[in-house]
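Quick one, T. Sequence first:
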Amino acid sequence: MAEKQNGGLIKDVDFLVYGLDNFRKFKNGGLQKIREKLNLGSISREHIEWHAKKYGKYFQPGLTNFSETLKRKWPALQIGPGILSTIRFVYNENEVPPDPVISPFMAKVSIRGRVAEAERVSFMPRIFEISSTGNRTFKVVTYFWAFYCAVKEGDEVEVTGNLHQDGNLITLDNYYSGIKILN
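Structure tokens:
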């Protein structure tokens, strides 16, 4: 992406990192070491505001607080004003999960709960689990670009999407789906 922001050029430069083991190294301090060594920051407030203004208008009102989900984009490296680099994680061939969407869509739902597991929200498809009241666990799956790293473990969220017939799978397909951070 290259675009003007406040008279300056905006660029996103992404890098791919392969494998769950390498992901865990980045997540458990490796990325912070890179930030410190290269004197880089996390995604800046200005970059979040710019993204939210540009893309936030497409989301259905009340379903997604896009600025809050962008704050959770931990693999972002703010290289300079308007220049963001994002580490994108890709499964090794032997790690690719089987197709998680195996049952037909049943109904549109909104579920509130706490994110119980979020390791795979950084991969494609993005997968995380939420525990709702009554200790019910839902697997949330999305291929939608905007939900990259949108949650972290422990977040209180409201997820709006398609409940599938198995009763435990919710898919988020587009701007009519949502992740609202509640905490």
